[in-house]
Write a structure and sequence with these properties.
This protein is an alpha/beta fold. It folds into two domains: 85 residues, Leucine Dehydrogenase, chain A, domain 1 (Rossmann fold, 3-Layer(aba) Sandwich); 127 residues, NAD(P)-binding Rossmann-like Domain (Rossmann fold, 3-Layer(aba) Sandwich), CATH 3.40.50. The strands form three sheets. The chain has a six-stranded parallel β-sheet with strand order 1-11-8-7-5-6. A three-stranded parallel β-sheet has the order 3-2-4, with helices on both faces. Helix 2 crosses helix 10. The longest helix is centred in the first third of the chain and has 21 residues. The chain is globular. The structure holds NADP nicotinamide-adenine-dinucleotide phosphate. The site of NADP nicotinamide-adenine-dinucleotide phosphate (NAP) has 24 residues, from helix 10. The site of NADP nicotinamide-adenine-dinucleotide phosphate has 24 residues, from helix 10.
């Protein structure tokens, strides 16, 4: 049976060190502050933003939620982001995705100053990640790498397969694994022979958003499997969140596996706090 990689416990341990960093900053009269901009009324986004704010406050990081709703114009978001860029008391800015319909995420996120881009999603930070210049790494892939390193310290030479190629998860994930000297294969909806390719992987990271997509047939015995997917299902009238991986079956053959919930999710939020303290330190 696989080791269960408990993201909640690992995130709690990590947050303790972040809390210590916050204390150090405050002793130097630096008061870390994150602005959380939510331009949608999607209920899941509202819950995520609230969770992020609560964790920030519990670690001593100031957080302000800007709840803009569904009908906000692109110009109004742009004005807010530009004002936050100029505000010296704000160290980190998050533009929660998805945005309300009709708003262009890429155009708006690129208005965030790279030195306040807490999720490393501006074109400048993503470019720096790919060229190896100092950068802010996106939170979800950073959290995934952290989880993998808790079960295996040296990833050099291993074959890692990343399913999904978004700018938020898949692409930066592949780059972070490449930086660890993995041989990386990226798979997407047009890929062929997905099952066969996955079966050659030492590490599988799935970020596609399809429940139970990764079955036992995709997994080489002993592989590490990290499930990024979040899929909301209704089973017997009850709402349930599941990942992309058929957890019960895959945990019989993998060496380590992260569950959903309590896998990658808590690490994403923890890295948001880590990046906030990092950005506050650099000021
Ligand atoms: P996204 O932008 O929708 O991208 C999904 C990716 O999956 C695309 O690259 C798509 O390929 C690929 N894909 C879809 N079906 C596939 C298939 N059958 N086989 C192979 N690849 C397939 O999603 P995202 O923002 O990257 O998020 C991915 C998942 O992770 C979602 O479930 C999301 O909710 C979850 N997520 C979780 C966290 C967390 O903190 N736990 C954070 C972010 C996202 P194409 O490019 O060809 O369309």
């Amino acid at each position: 049976m696989a080791t269960i990689i408990n993201g909640k416990d690992i995130a709690n341990d990590f947050c303790r060190t972040i809390g210590e960093k916050v204390d150090e900053l405050k002793a130097q009269k630096v008061f870390p502050c994150i602005a959380l901009v939510n331009a949608s009324s999607d209920p899941a986004s509202e819950i995520y933003v609230l969770k992020k704010s609560k964790l920030a406050e519990s670690l001593g990081i100031k957080s302000t939620i800007y709840k803009l709703g569904d009908n906000v114009s692109s110009d109004k978001i742009a004005d807010l982001l530009q004002n936050l860029n100029k505000d010296d008391t704000v160290h980190a800015i998050l533009l929660q995705s998805p945005l309300a319909n009709g708003l262009n995420f890429r155009k708006l996120v690129d208005l965030i100053a790279p030195e306040k881009d807490v999720d490393g999603l501006t074109t400048i930070n993503q470019g720096r990640l790919f060229t190896g210049e100092p950068h802010v790494a996106p939170c979800t892939p950073s959290g995934v790498l952290h989880l993998i390193l808790t079960v295996l310290e040296n990833l050099s030479g291993l074959h890692a397969v990343v399913l999904g190629r978004s700018s938020i998860v898949g692409k930066p994930m592949a780059q972070l694994l490449l930086n660890e000297n993995c041989t990386v294969t990226m798979l997407h909806s047009k890929s062929q022979n997905i099952t066969e390719i996955c079966r050659t992987a030492d590490i599988i990271v799935s970020a596609i958003g399809k429940s139970k997509y990764i079955t036992k047939d995709f997994v080489k015995p002993g592989a590490i499997v990290i499930d990024v997917g979040i899929n909301r299902l209704e089973i017997d009238g009850k709402k349930k969140i599941v990942g992309d991986v058929d957890f019960d079956a895959v945990s019989e053959i993998a060496s380590a596996i992260s569950p959903v919930p309590n896998g990658v999710g808590p690490m994403t939020v923890a890295y948001l706090m880590h990046n906030t303290t990092h950005l506050a330190t650099k000021k």
